[in-house]
């Protein structure tokens, strides 16, 4: 990546980390995907039970492969026929992996969900939540983060899952009430009651949507 972009991202990440710390959450900056993988594995002790909620960014840094190959109890929800059982197992996991649809530069995380298993596990249940977040997800304020979630992340996800929503056809949010909508729940994580539960690795790269 261009040296000027690297510098800006590093500075911006420090601002976001300061915001996260003020909200009882912990932030880290990774200069590249390899550093992000190393940081994530330092946060996940061997033998931990680990699950995830559609974290494309975790795949992109090689974390999911590393966990599947390593000495971890990786709970693969795709392997469960009973999806409810997979969701209940996630609530009791040691670590939940997620990306974020957006994050503000003062450390507020914004996530939207259709089934809502991801946002509910972020809110409570798993003992630790590790977010992998590309610097492309950082927005100036909460309004910008909500707009990003609804006008960038949601239309792309609706398209890739073949959902019949207006945004899948137009690329922009139409505030639908379609049966396929993925905007059933909006989770704004502005503070963590439990210290050392939420960890956010900001990666100097474009990850996820
Ligand atoms: S509310 Fe509907 S149109 Fe808007 S982003 Fe969500 S699914 Fe798409």
Question: How would you explain this protein's 3D organization?
Answer:
The protein is built from eight helices and ten strands. The chain has a single domain, classed as Rossmann fold (3-Layer(aba) Sandwich), CATH 3.40.50.10420. The strands form two sheets. It has a six-stranded parallel β-sheet, with helices on both faces. It has a four-stranded mixed β-sheet with strand order 8-5-6-9, with helices on both faces. With 209 residues, the chain is an alpha/beta fold. It has helices spanning 3-22, 33-43, 56-60, 63-69, 83-91, 117-123, 142-160, 166-170; strands at 26-30, 49-52, 73-74, 95-98, 102-104, 109-113, 128-134, 138-139, 185-189, 198-203. It is globular. The chain binds iron/sulfur cluster. Iron/sulfur cluster is lined by residues 150, 154-155, 158, 165-167, 173-176, 178, 181-183.
Quick synopsis:
This protein has helices at 3-22, 33-43, 56-60, 63-69, 83-91, 117-123, 142-160, 166-170, and strands at residues 26-30, 49-52, 73-74, 95-98, 102-104, 109-113, 128-134, 138-139, 185-189, 198-203.
